[in-house]
Amino acid sequence: MAKxxxxxxxxxxxxxxxxxxxAVLQYGDKVKELKGGALLTTNNQxxxxxxxxxxxxxxxxxxxxxxxxxxxxxxxxxxxxxxWKKNGWRTADKKPVKNAELWQALDAATQRHTINWHWVKGxxxxxxxxxxxxxxxxxxxxxxxxxxTGYMPPV
Length: 155
Description:
This protein is an alpha/beta fold. 41% of the residues lie in helices and 30% in strands.
């Protein structure tokens, strides 16, 4: 099984507001960078989207070392999701899970891979986390400009 190292990050200007996501995928000496964004979103939604997009970009089942600076994403997949699914996508206090559609998409994206989740401290000099952050900000840029100008260029 191919081993891929993934670094993901999300960004948001306002919460909610324009946001972006970025991912760096490393397979041997090959590197693939992904980015995108949305006009009205939250940081958590962009963190989830980064992981979804990274995993769905893999063309075959892989062993993935997934690095994120979001405990929300890491803990959601490693600790909370089993209870949410058991409770019909409700939290322990019976409230609907926030971002359930994104959690469901991420859960589906994980199914064909073996994933080791790693939390890294954001903005602490980790080179690949910094690059994922830069991609997230690049992904957010056209949406941030659109909010400011009212014009959305083709992305």
